[in-house]
Amino acid sequence: MEISVSSQTIAFLLSCLLGAGLAAVYDVFRILRIALPQPAPVIAAQDFAYLLICAGATFFYLMTTVSGQIRLFVLVGEVIGWVLYYFTIGEVVMKAAHTVIDFVYRLLRLLLTPFIFVGKRLYRILSRAGKKVEARAKKISANGKMRLKQQRLLLYNLIKIPGRKTRIVKGGDSQ
Fold this sequence. Notes:
There is one protein chain. The chain is mainly α. The chain has helices spanning 5-35, 40-65, 72-87, 89-150, and strands spanning 158-159, 167-168. Strand 1 and strand 2 (167-168) form a beta hairpin. The protein has a two-stranded antiparallel ribbon. Helices cover 77% and strands 2% of the residues. Helix 1 (5-35) crosses helix 3.
């Protein structure tokens, strides 16, 4: 099946538009990376997801416009559209995203500062109280062990010696 020049031109221009759309999807991932810093494995997973999105979009585009035939002008059109978007509209979008994200961070910092201040104070107060409780508990625990040894009359302190009266021995010494 032969494709006319006009249909090839339309397919090329639409592939440029597809490339620009894929660059916009990449900007979403870039904005997420700026807003929420992520470790390298998560970024690698996002890049792989973007690769799958691009591959799927290109596959469906090729299936619908050029009957599934791989045409170089379609792939070149996608690259041209991606590059044009990335270096023109993408720059504006990223600057706007930086501005909005900085504003949101500053606003959150401003709104959360009183809560952070109160939280730090409360933490200091509770940690001091906790240290006092811990010290008191250690003292009680140590005294609890000492009381068992310091009581005057316990069953095991009664020593029976044959032919004599039972007598109480202090400290466990036998005389």
